[in-house]
């Protein structure tokens, strides 16, 4: 249910405008600051251990900072980038990797 509400919110024009503003404001931030809110949201959707997984996944997800901070924010591109980066992690059974992968899949199924 939370996913449906999130997707509905993200798809509303007000949310898209707000998301654009958030992404644009993050554009001037360092990569770690831009990736953190996106990861926090995904970890929350997946009911993951947010503090523990943030510490583990931020260095990995920083590879997507260019997509995340783009002038034209794109949810699909962000999810695709994160999915590719996560799929390259050597330990695919790691709790945080499994949790974030499931969260990404849940969001993609609702889009």
Describe this structure in words.
This is Fungal calcium binding protein domain-containing protein. Residues 1-18 form the signal peptide. This protein has helices at 2-11, 13-26, 31-45, 50-61, 65-68, 75-87, 95-110. With 111 residues, the chain is mainly α. The protein has one domain. Helix 3 packs across helix 4 and helix 6 packs antiparallel against helix 7 (95-110). The longest helix is centred in the last third of the chain and has 16 residues, at 95-110. Mean pLDDT is 74; it is low at 5-30.
Could you say how many structural domains there are in total?
Answer: 1
Strand fraction equals under 5%
Helix content: over 70%
Query: Which regions are unreliable across 5 or more consecutive residues at pLDDT < 50?
Result: 5-30
Q: Give the terminus-to-terminus CA distance.
A: 14 Å
Instruction: Give the H and E element order.
Output: HHHHHHH
Tell me the total number of β-strands: 0
- Taken from the alpha-carbon principal axes, the silhouette is globular
Number of helices: 7
Structural class: mainly alpha
Rounded to the nearest angstrom, the radius of gyration is 13 Å
Q: What is the residue-mean pLDDT, rounded to a whole number?
A: 74
Largest sheet: none
Organism: Aspergillus puulaauensis
Protein name: Fungal calcium binding protein domain-containing protein
Signal peptide: 1-18
Keywords: Signal
């Amino acid at each position: 249910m939370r996913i449906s509400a999130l997707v509905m919110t993200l798809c509303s024009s007000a949310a898209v405008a707000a998301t654009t503003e958030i992404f644009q404001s993050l554009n001037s931030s360092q990569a770690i600051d831009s990736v953190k809110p996106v990861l926090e949201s995904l970890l929350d959707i997946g009911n993951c251990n947010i503090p523990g997984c943030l510490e583990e996944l931020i260095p990995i997800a920083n590879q997507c900072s260019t997509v995340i901070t783009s002038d034209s924010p794109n949810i699909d591109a962000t999810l695709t980038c994160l999915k590719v980066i996560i799929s390259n992690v050597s330990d695919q059974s790691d709790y945080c990797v499994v949790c974030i992968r499931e969260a990404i899949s849940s969001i993609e199924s609702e889009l």
